[in-house]
Amino acid sequence: MRNLSTMKTAIIYASKHGTTQKVANELSTLLPQHDVTMLDAGKNHKIDLTTYDQIIVGGSIHAGMIQTSLQKFIERNTTSLLQKPLGIFLCCMDEKEAMNQFEKAFPEILRHHAKCCQCVGGEFLFEKMNFLEKLMTRKIAGVNETVSKLRYENIKALAQSMT
Ligand SMILES: Cc1cc2nc3c(=O)[nH]c(=O)nc-3n(C[C@H](O)[C@H](O)[C@H](O)COP(=O)(O)O)c2cc1C
């Protein structure tokens, strides 16, 4: 293990409208003593985890599902993820379903291995949504305008567990 000043931490995320990316950025600012690399699973198909000391993985829920790119990343890298300290977070807006969605999104073996698992809330960003997404959000969530319900205390707890 490297000393703390050079701890290499990868934050691997997938984000549709930018909220999960915002959380990943927030995490990286909360880990100032780490050498943090942020990797978008939607854009990087061959992520090599061997050079990192620890990993944080995060995604978001749309229509009950996590992003396919993140799901595929997890499937391909489960063995490597089990060999490193791991943190997991999920962005979603349905507070009642948060835990069920989290359990569906991340395999049990990784949830048990992780040092910390956090549901960090989310945002409805109407300016980033297409017509169908606006329609769905109005109909299912009854929300008609941009709203942010990020749980910064959970983001901080995740960062603290990885320091
Ligand atoms: C079209 C649409 C469908 C969504 N479906 C769900 C859902 O099924 N459950 C939930 O908890 N949140 C749902 N959300 C809320 C998202 O998880 C939330 O907007 C999150 O912050 C998105 O993060 P991202 O921009 O990084 O993808 C949905 C949002 C949109 C726009």
Can you tag this structure with a few keywords?
Rossmann fold; six-stranded mixed beta sheet; 6 helices; 8 strands; binds flavin mononucleotide
Describe the structure.
It is globular and about 45 Å long. Strand 1, helix 1 and strand 2 form a beta-alpha-beta unit. With 163 residues, the protein is an alpha/beta fold. It has a single domain, classed as Rossmann fold (3-Layer(aba) Sandwich), CATH 3.40.50. Helix content is 37%, strand content 25%. Strands 1, 2, 3, 4, 5 and 6 form a six-stranded mixed beta sheet that branches. A two-stranded antiparallel sheet has the order 7-8. It binds flavin mononucleotide (FMN). The site of flavin mononucleotide has 24 residues, from helix 1, strand 3, strand 7 and helix 5.
Associated small molecules? flavin mononucleotide
Q: What gap, in angstroms, lies between the N and C termini?
A: 13 Å
Number of strands: 8
Helix content: 25-40%
Oligomer: single chain
Label the CATH architecture.
3-Layer(aba) Sandwich
Name the beta content range: 25-35%
Order of helices and strands: EHEEEHEHHEEHEH
Determine the structural class based on helices, strands and strand pairing. Answer: alpha/beta
**Strand count, sense and closure of the main sheet?**
6 strands, mixed
State the CATH class.
Alpha Beta
